[in-house]
Give the backbone structure.
Amino acid sequence: MKRPEPVQVVKQRRDAALQALVGGVPYIQYLGLRFDRRGDELTGILPFDEKLIGNPLLPALHGGVTAAFLEQTAIITLSWAYLWEDIESGALDFDPAGAAPLPRLPKTVDFSVDYLRSGLPRDAYARARVNRAGRRYASVHVEAWQDNRGKLFAQGTGHFVMPQRR
Amino acid sequence: MADQIELARKFIEAIPHSRDLGMELRAMGDGEATIAMPYDARLVGDPETGVISGGAVSALMDTCCGAAVMCHPKNGGGTATLDLRIDYMRAATPGQGLTTTATCYHVTRSVAFVRATAWDEDADNPVATATGAFTVEGVR
């Protein structure tokens, strides 16, 4: 029987893949968006920053920032699900030196956001669920909250065109 | 009315996130607003092509729709987004800025309905369109 891989090897491979996926997108860096990984589950974390404010009187997060946070969480979660098997099998080897080309990301067709309450000036979290991932199209739902997981401040649904495998 | 537009203009121009993205209010009045946003390498969503992220387009659309609501004669003051849907028709051309025009086409006592279109330098082919519902505050 094959021995299970040492835990550090598994963690390092998954974290390197996630870092390559997220670190390569300038807009994710601009927003300050990070991803927390537990097994294959990702949580988007948007640390609060003054530049993300949309209403200085309240103050509240910009609606566009909320939309961007949801959409980026959807895109990364969808890519992650789509790449997972290749990451695990080693078929997709992320080169820490950044020499190997990164996989292409899905393209957004449409994205719809419900604003449920105003985004407070503090950290926000989001998790996405891939409801359908076909060869060409995918549908993803994503929820965002701040202090209480049960009290969403926004949710969104988007449709995406999947990248063609190269 | 002129005061309302001036107040709305000041408010839009003071939004930290919009300022950070370099948004410029080009026109505003009677429920219609036009805002431009320059190309910025920080906003790239696809590193391979240099195409601006949909999220940055969302921020531009949301700001412009809000501005259209704020300058509508039947809205008394501020507004907040209830929902916003964006359709992405094509990738914005790398290196080109975006311009959005939003129209607040119907206002009830509680809700304002808005639609918007965004273009790059090719004004015949929209990059994205948006439809949204916004809150309405009473006329002062």
About this structure: The helical segments of chain A are 7-23, 26-31, 63-89.
